[in-house]
Design a protein that fits this description.
It is built from 6 helices and 4 strands; from the N terminus they run H-H-H-E-E-H-H-E-E-H. By secondary structure, it is α+β, with helices and mostly antiparallel strands. The protein is rod-shaped and about 85 Å long. Bound molecules: zinc ion (2 copies).
Length: 132
């Protein structure tokens, strides 16, 4: 086991994870994990509630502490990679929903600019109506 792997096991133990979970997350043999954990018991006072999330880019486990905001990536590099690969989804997310002031239909437009009508037709009709 490498120093990093040992640290990971200790961290995960502190999160209250069970041996099979630790073994799965680290990819280390469960027997090795058990032996290591027994030899290096974690102080109960040291345990903190938390969960393990997985990096959305590379799938590496990321420890999420209660007080921290949820982490979705193990590193900034992965974050950048993910955003680069999901530009369309990100764009899609900045879409805003509106209700057409003329026909009452719901519609979406990219970006945050306010739109009052779902179509040119509705906007023309509304103008016509206002002029009447
Ligand atoms: Zn990652
Ligand atoms: Zn409309």
């Amino acid at each position: 086991m490498t120093q990093i792997e040992k640290q990971k096991i200790i961290e995960m133990q502190k999160q209250g994870l069970k041996y099979p979970t630790i073994a799965k997350l680290t990819g280390i043999n469960i027997g090795t994990v058990k032996t290591y954990c027994r030899r290096h018991p974690v102080d109960a006072a040291d345990t903190q509630p938390g969960t393990v999330a997985f990096c959305k880019e590379c799938g590496k486990p990321v420890i999420v502490r209660e007080k921290c905001k949820p982490r979705q990536f193990c590193s900034d590099a992965c974050r950048m990679k993910w955003w680069n690969g999901h530009r369309d989804e990100v764009k899609h997310k900045t879409e805003s929903r509106f209700i057409c002031e003329f026909c009452g239909g719901a519609f979406t437009r990219p970006g945050k600019t306010r739109h009052r009508f779902c179509s040119k037709k509705c906007s023309a009709e509304a103008r016509k109506k206002a002029a009447e």
